[in-house]
Amino acid sequence: MKMINTGIFARPKRILICSCLLVLLFAEPTATASGATYLEARELPPPPEATLDDEVNINVKNFGDYEIRTGVTDSKVAVIAIHGGKIEQGTSELAYALSARNHYNYYTYLGVRDKDNASLHIPSAQFEEPAALAMVAQSETTLSIHGCSGAGEFTYIGGLDTPLAGKVKDALTEYGFTVLDAPKHLAGLSPDNIVNRNQNGGGVQLEISKGLRAQFLDADSSQLTRYVAALSEALGNRP
Prior knowledge:
Elements: E1 42-44, E2 59-62, E3 66-71, E4 77-85, H1 91-102, E5 105-111, H2 130-137, E6 141-148, E7 155-158, H3 162-174, E8 179-181, E9 204-209, H4 210-216, H5 223-235
Parallel strand pairs: 4-5, 4-6, 6-9, 7-8
Antiparallel strand pairs: 1-2, 2-3, 3-5, 7-9
Helix pairs in contact: 1-5, 3-5
């Protein structure tokens, strides 16, 4: 699901370089895209529900078109959703729910535009937002949550941490979820993919269908709770 940004951050003269935040430019020569930069943020108070527990607060930074939210714990596990918010809906919610249950480190990059959030999509192998890179680099286990197309309810599993990927597949299957072999372009096998840039050189990437993610967002559905339980079991509640 490669998409290149044609409209994001179209005002370079107004970009302020923050001393604590690198401004990065990505470009990929495909049919529809150009690149993305990470701009200076303004601090926002976290939303009322945005806390992993009584001890961990979610840090929220707003960049206009998107937000970055992080929750840092003492865990060696990081759960990230780099296409969150309105880019691939349901991914931030799942990442947060899993992190909250297990006290894992949490990161999400959320599209918050009224429209055209797809243009905020940055390919995983080119995603180098500093806070995300730092969190992943300090983790031993990394789970990256993504969304893919498909009206059915299924999950593709990829990434270079094949032992953990196998455990995730077994757990999801045991809980009644459908797991399919990931197509090559969604397999998350590049060492440059952010999920594989942790201390062990490999993580697990989940690509969750639109149909299943819609279930996660249904307040009356138990799918999100069951999915989180399956992932927690696969991770073995790793500290």
